[in-house]
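Data deposition worksheet. Section B asks for the primary sequence of the deposited chain exactly as it was used as input, without tags or linkers unless they were present during the calculation. Section C holds the resulting structure in token form. Section D is free text for depositor observations; keep each observation to a single sentence. Incomplete worksheets are returned to the depositor.
Section A, Depositor: J.P.
Section B:
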Amino acid sequence: MTTPMARARTPSRRWGRSAAAVLLGFVTVVVLSLGTDQPLHVLKVYPPWGEPMHDPGLNLLALAYRCVYGVVGSYIMARLAPHSPMGHVWVGAAIGFILSLAGAVATIPLNLGPAWYPIALAVSALPTAWIGRTLYLRRQAAG
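Section C:
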């Protein structure tokens, strides 16, 4: 009699763990990104919060570390996934792409910086996920 109850709870538990894996990957990216942005604003490398940042070099710097953090977030999604880690990474990449694309559509008209920056963030969602996935697979194979 306990077997049907265990079976009934397993899918919801797995769904919760799956959602947590994807969420923790996203939270990692956001925390690392904002945790890097803040000192750069305080040190006046970046303009104050809320002001446009038109310098292509500064936008390239932000894109570079956000891509690295995207790889880290995707690795975390794969690592914490209760099953099919690659599926979790691709779901996370799709969500990241959609959110970044929405951000690009919303911010480009505001002229907060070069239009290529939010577009590049959206385009980078899939490649960074692929790299995070590849690093996870290599680590799994090695050990």
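Section D:
The radius of gyration is 18 Å.
The chain has four helices and no strands.
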